Amino acid sequence: MTGLLVGSVALAAVWVLPGFAPASLEALRRRRGAAMGEPPPAGLELARALVAGTIAVAIVGGSLLAFGWFSATRVGIVLLALAILGLPGFIGWWRRAVAPAWRTLTLVALGVPALWSGAEGGLQPSHAFQWYYWDLGTQLTDAGGVPSWILEFGQQVRWHPDYVFFSAGSEAYRWLTESVGETSAIVAWRAPVALLGLAMAYAVLRLWTGRFAALCGTAAVSATTFYLIKFNAYKPESLGLVIGLACVCLLVHGLRRRDSTLIVVAFVGIGVDFGIHGIAAAVCSALGLGAVVAEWTQRRREARAWSWRPLVAGAVAGAVVLVATGLSLQGRAVVATDAANPRIEDGRDPTWTFLERHDANFAVSDPPSLGGRILDSVNVPWPSSLVRDWGWVPLLLILLAALAMAVRGPPPLRLGGIAIGVWLAALLAAGAFFALAFDSFIPQHTGITRIGGYLYLLWGMAAALLIEPLTSRLRARTTRLAAAAVLAFVLAWSLPVGIHAFSTRLELGSEGSAALAEVRDMGERQPGGAVLSNASTRGIVEFVTDLEQPIEGRQPVIEDPGFLDAANRVLARTQSYFLTLGEPGIERVRLLRELDVRWLLVVSDPQLLGARDAFGDPGTAIAAARREPGLELEWQRPGIALFSVAEGTADLPRQGPVKRGVWPIWTALLLLGVAAACWFASLKRGGGNG
Predict the structure, then answer these.
(1) DSSP code of 235?
(2) What phi-psi label fits residue 99: left (phi over 0), alpha (psi between -120 and 50 degrees) or beta?
(3) Which of 79, 145, 456, 488 has the largest CB neighbor count within 10 A?
(4) How many Cα atoms within 13 Å fall on the side-chain side of residue 458?
């Protein structure tokens, strides 16, 4: 429980409280008697704080990275100071936002599965890339900036740049949670992020529906397969979705209030969000497009003035942030260009080969059919017990009918129907583009499964549009009774689903924890070298032992083709090593030498290390390793053994020095931002809102 509390406060201090600093200043001016308008709605104020806080992380973290001054302490101290400045604004917001209490309690209740999981602790889910994401941030502190290269799959490759702002904020979060330890901090993260996700889904739905329908829609979202997968671990995608929804909320309020500042800040937030998670930012951009179309059609119906200038200015600002971030910190203008990297060679798809080999599957197989993948991406909007067999088909038809009826209904329901309808069309178009424009598995997978997965979020939000007209036709007393009954049903449905989903995950057991602790202790006594295991893990070995694990790298499926080919070869050689363990042969010795392996961790069951798959034959691996020349048994427990490699290691460095020469573009971006802020301030003083 302590870890959950500390993690929640730390996350707020990094991503939320700095964004309340303007509200604190407004409150101070109000106390001094300055003429101030009414505080904005609670949802808008939270969205504004989230976006402003994210921009603060980008400015502080990006500047420290660009000039090579980065460390967890430095970025943490600056953001903590901003958080303290924002605390009075947050307290004032909380006092206004908590009412009505039944709504707030319902939203918190929907977050109970994530809160329960975050408080539980333990190394879970173990078979997730959350450990890798955490280590991406620590690499920035170790280098003092963006490393010129890091070691993965035995190759010196670029530091993974796709989540640069997430990694910068991650280091501030790590510094603030040192008192509870890294494991507790990682596990605790999911709870406050999940609550923020629910709050932002509710805030967006409130743009178009009443409280009750928005709560029911949020409950439907909380039980979707999408939500239960994306918010179950330490992932940049979940935070990227929260920030993206906040930007949509800002954009719509800016259009309705004719506030050009809100509009431009929303676009800048989306530009920054691409540095947190590109797919989440792109999907929320599509929802923002739908919202703009909806607001434009409403203005035309009402024959009211409409100005495109704030939208154009905002789009330009967002594009400048996106491209400048890419060129200065990420090594390319936009991440989408990497999708063209994979190439089919000799009839084999290297991206599919990697995915299979990373899961220790070396049987030659073809990727699933395109039609099968499309069906798999839409047929489980909620866990299968709710939509068994083909039950999802009538359910989605009902939601589509509700969407069509909303488009023809009264405002603001019609605006929601148009916005979500355009969003649906954009997601389908994006999915079709990736499916048809590329012939390798991963780019197709990006469109069909990664983007297609957001359809589940869309269906959950569409449920609110289905419920809104039903409740609006009932009389007040009947509505309250019906609302209470339906809400009770929704909670009774969504909470068990969430708790079950968050509890069914792999976790590192006691034997695996003891083994990794032993490796860490030996690594401290004999620094240097790497540890290789026959279990196909996802970063947990490096995280616990602080030693290099050569095959615990990223999924280099849209990286440089040479890197992808090298990773596939290393995985094949690893499989061969463990298959022939205990037999004579120089190739195995050469592999250990090239990967700088000093420790060999062998398991008879990969689940002992929290993994699903293992290389070679795990059932005989320990006995074979005991016969292997050059290996010495150091430690053993039932089903798991640690060996040292007799031959000395090269003690290869794990990462290169800080990348230089990136500060000019970043400085130009900051100067441009200051100039734009001054210009908008002058417009405000002159009464120009666009």
Answers:
(1) -
(2) beta
(3) 79
(4) 28
